[in-house]
Every structure is written in structure tokens, then in C-alpha cells.
Design goal:
- The N terminus is likely disordered.
- This protein starts with 13 loop residues before the first helix and ends in a 10-residue tail after the last helix.
- The strands form 4 sheets. A 5-stranded antiparallel sheet has the order 8-7-9-14-15. Strands 1, 2, 4 and 5 form a 4-stranded antiparallel sheet that branches. The chain has a 3-stranded antiparallel sheet with strand order 3-12-11, with no helix packed on it.
- The chain is α+β, with helices and mostly antiparallel strands and 283 residues long.
- It binds magnesium ion (MG).
């Protein structure tokens, strides 16, 4: 039986993926700049300004600014989501002052010529205990396990299962996998089908084909998988106050292999260490 063609999934030509790469490099530059600036005494609003400068200097637009307008949400007021400690995602930059030992999830998006890039990372402000460093590393590794499972002919469920297996296999610790938010297709809009859950069963869901682009983004916690939304209707925090980490990259399926559009090296090093072929301009 012929598998069902995934509906609503935008298939990109290579020239369109190349534009997405330009957006991805802006995202990467912004993450780097904000991670470098994230120090004790700095407010999250000051980091938003750093993100705005990076967008402006590349002539790029924000994927996040005013997101939600017309969708029943208060329009998102910033160019970056900055989520501290027990905040998981969608923290709004403001007057909060970062302190030594905080962890900061930086989620940033950019539009170049109508095409989006989206990525996130969690960084430590100053020093953090081993337990927190392990959480962040488990989240990063789960993302790469998911990315490495992306291949033509596989299904989205294979990616989800690879992420879940990575989380469960990591250093014997138990982490909560946030289920209310997932990865997603990305292209001429930031959020497109298909959803990419961070848990699930292999051999299920839409089939992966050439020209797909996916944002893979596990969110892990030191406690519960349950989350609550803040009064601002954006900030998502763990229900039990445990700390959370978030890591995300945008990956495209090219004729030559995977191209991690939001990594400076296109994903070359991490993919090679997992025996996965890097496509696009991977160096
Ligand atoms: Mg995303």
C-alpha cells in the first residue's frame, strides 16, 4: 500500500533552502551574541536589544515580534524568548536581572526574504551545579539524536522516538519531557505542519521526504513534564518549579543529506560523529 502523502507539508526547493540557510545563520549569530552577553547583572530586555541589533545588521526581520496577533493571543512584544530557570519557553524579555547560577533558554527566529530560521539553546549564567549542567547536555543530545534520525523514508515518529530514547538513556537520570509543546515544520512560515513531538513511537506519522525542513526542539525538566502558562499568556513554566532546558535547530532534508541551517558548520561535526551525511554546504 502506498503511504499517505503528508498533507499541508511545504516541500522546499534547494534554492529556497539556501535562503533559509541565510536566515539560519542570522539566528545562529543572534544566539551567539545573546549567549555572550548573558551575564550576571544584565536584564533580559538588554538581551532583546542585542537580538534586535543582530537582525538589523543583517537586514533580517523577526519571526517572533508580533507573533500571535490575529490568533487570539497578545502580540508577542520582543524578538527573542528568554526563559529563566523554571521557565520552559516563551519568556518575555523585561526588567528581570540575570543572576549568577541562573540558566537561560534563548529562543530566536529570523526571516530573510520571506523564509524563516528558528533555534534555541540553554546557557548558564556564571556557574551552575553538575545536575543542571547534565540537564542542559541531555537536552542538547536529545536534539541531536532527533536530528540524526531525520532521513528520507523515515517517519516523524522515528524522530520523536529517537529523542525520547536519548532522554531515557542519558546518564541514568530521569528527566521530564514537556509534551504540550513540540517541534514543527518551518519554511515560509515559522510554524508549519508537521508537529514533531519529543516522544512517540517509531514508524508512525508523516513520511520524511526531500525538501522538508523541521525545527527539532526538545524541552526537558528536572521534575515534572507538566507546565503552566503565566498571566502574560506567554511564559510557560514547569508546574512544580523544577528547572528546564530547551535546545532547537532547524534542519533541512537536501538531495545530498541533512543541512542543519541554524548551526555555523551546517551540522557537519555533530552529524559526522553520528555517522549521518551532511548535505548543503557543510564545512
Ligand atoms: Mg520552534
Amino acid at each position: 500500500m502506498r503511504p499517505k502523502t503528508p498533507r499541508g507539508i511545504q516541500i522546499k526547493r534547494l534554492d529556497q533552502i539556501e535562503v533559509m540557510r541565510r536566515a539560519g545563520l542570522v539566528v545562529s549569530a543572534g544566539l551567539e551574541a545573546m549567549a555572550t552577553a548573558a551575564a550576571p547583572g544584565v536584564t533580559t530586555l538588554e538581551l532583546d536589544a542585542v537580538g534586535r541589533d543582530v537582525l538589523a545588521s543583517h537586514g533580517a526581520k523577526s519571526s517572533f515580534l508580533r507573533y500571535g496577533a490575529g490568533m487570539g493571543l497578545p502580540p508577542y512584544p520582543a524578538v527573542v524568548c528568554l526563559s529563566v530557570n523554571e521557565e520552559v519557553v516563551h519568556g518575555i524579555p523585561g526588567s528581570r536581572v540575570l543572576r549568577d547560577g541562573d540558566i537561560l533558554s534563548i529562543d530566536f527566529g529570523a526571516i530573510v526574504d520571506g523564509w524563516h530560521g528558528d533555534a534555541a539553546r540553554t546557557v548558564i549564567v556564571g556557574e551552575a551545579p553538575q545536575k543542571v549542567r547534565d540537564l542542559i547536555e541531555a537536552t542538547r543530545l536529545a536534539m541531536w539524536a532527533g536530528i540524526a534520525a531525520v532521513r528520507v523514508g523515515a517517519r516523524i515518529g522515528d524522530v520523536s522516538a529517537a529523542i525520547e530514547a536519548s532522554v531515557k538513556g542519558h546518564d541514568g537520570r530521569k528527566y521530564g519531557i514537556v509534551r504540550e509543546y513540540t517541534g514543527h515544520g518551518i519554511g515560509s512560515a515559522m510554524h508549519q505542519p508537521p508537529d514533531v513531538p519529543n516522544w512517540g513511537h517509531p514508524r508512525r506519522g508523516p513520511r520524511i521526504v526531500q525538501g522538508m525542513a523541521l525545527a527539532i526542539e526538545p524541552m526537558l525538566t528536572l521534575g515534572t513534564e507538566r507546565v503552566v502558562e503565566g498571566a502574560d499568556e506567554w511564559t510557560v513554566s514547569t508546574a512544580d518549579g523544577s528547572w528546564a532546558a530547551h535546545w532547537e535547530d532547524t534542519v533541512a532534508v537536501t538531495p545530498d543529506g541533512l543541512w542543519v541551517l541554524t548551526e555555523p558548520d551546517g551540522g557537519a561535526a555533530e552529524l559526522a560523529s553520528r555517522g549521518v551525511r551532511c548535505g548543503g554546504q557543510c564545512e
